[in-house]
Amino acid sequence: MPDIKVLVLGSRAPANYALCHCVAVLAPDCRFLFEQPEAMPVFLKRRVKKLGMLQVAGQVFFQALAVPVLQKTSADRIAAIQRLYDLNTTPVDPSRVTEVPSINSPQAIQAVESIQPTVIVLAGTRILGKALLQAIHCPVINIHAGITPLYRGVHGGYWALVEKRFDLCGVTVHRVDAGIDTGEVLAQACFHPSAEDNFVTYPWIQLGEGLKLLTELLPRIVAGEKLGCKPMVSESQLRTHPTLWGYLRNRVFGGIK
Q1: Backbone dihedral region of 153: left (phi > 0), alpha (psi from -120 to 50 degrees) or beta?
Q2: Is the dihedral angle over the CA atoms 201, 202, 203, 206 positive or is it negative?
Q3: Distance CA 214, CA 228 (A)
Q4: Which of 119, 124, 210, 252 is the most buried (most CB within 10 A)?
Q5: Do 206 and 191 meet the contact criterion of CB atoms below 8 Å apart?
Q6: What CA–CA distance (Å, rounded) separates 7 from 20?
Q7: Whole-angstrom Cα distance, residue 168 to residue 188?
């Protein structure tokens, strides 16, 4: 895609690096704008205000106690998925990276306006704020780990399995608007996890499937093609992280790992 300015807005994490490397193959002159992690006290305070202390405590316990165990016991499976989808999780070339405190900071807005990208791809950022969205004059594309609009928010594949909506365990590539995963759907794909898979492996499969969709879509987006498809489902719900006790209940009584 010659003369195309593709900008990836993201944060530093192995899965996000895999997306960046995929985009770099499609657009060798792409640039990366990485934000710093949000301070945990600020994040937790906002989440408690929204969800309540009990639910947030359960989510923290799940992330602190269950996820590390799942990561350790699933290391071989994660590596196998990365090989299957040829995911490169190494850090990207630092000379192509601009660091900003937040994707919604004045520095980020200034960088976007300076680069004037043809298309923006998200790779694990905060929700884009109004000021940033107003400064963007090109398509913004996101790979969402769930089938929207029913599985907006986080861990859409996991929640589809919990709810026995096995036909909706998948991934969505969509345009980004002011809502949370409410933008126009460009493509969706589903997958069937194996008996080896669990909460920490589902996102890697979703990333692999999502990058396959992005590889097909990105050249068409920058070419100005009118894209879009009818979502697999019309119901809409915003999802959040499981609590430790909720995860254990779903695993023991529902068999969903």
Answers
A1: left
A2: positive
A3: 13
A4: 210
A5: yes
A6: 10
A7: 10
Q: How much is the CA Rg of the chain, to the nearest whole Å? A: 18
Q: Distance (Å, rounded) from C-alpha 248 to C-alpha 232?
A: 29
- Three-state DSSP at 32 gives strand
Q: Across the chain, which distance is largest between two alpha carbons, in Å?
A: 54
pLDDT at 3: 54
Q: What share of the chain is helix, strand, coil (3-state, %, to 5)?
A: 45, 15, 40
Spatial distance between the Cα atoms of 14 and 78, rounded to a whole number of angstroms: 12
Distance CA 247, CA 241 (A): 10
**What is the per-residue pLDDT for 224?**
87
- Domains of the chain (ranges, CATH numbers): 6-254 (3.40.50.12230)
Measured CA to CA, the distance from residue 51 to residue 38 in angstroms comes to: 18
Whole-prediction pTM value? Answer: 0.95
226: alpha, beta or left? (left if phi > 0; alpha if psi -120 to 50): beta
pLDDT tens-digit map of 120-158: 999 999 999 999 999 999 999 999 999 999 999 999 999
Q: What one-character DSSP code corresponds to residue 66? A: I
- What residues contact residue 112 under an 8 Å CB cut-off, 6+ apart? 7, 33, 120, 132, 135, 136
Q: How many residues are given for the chain?
A: 257
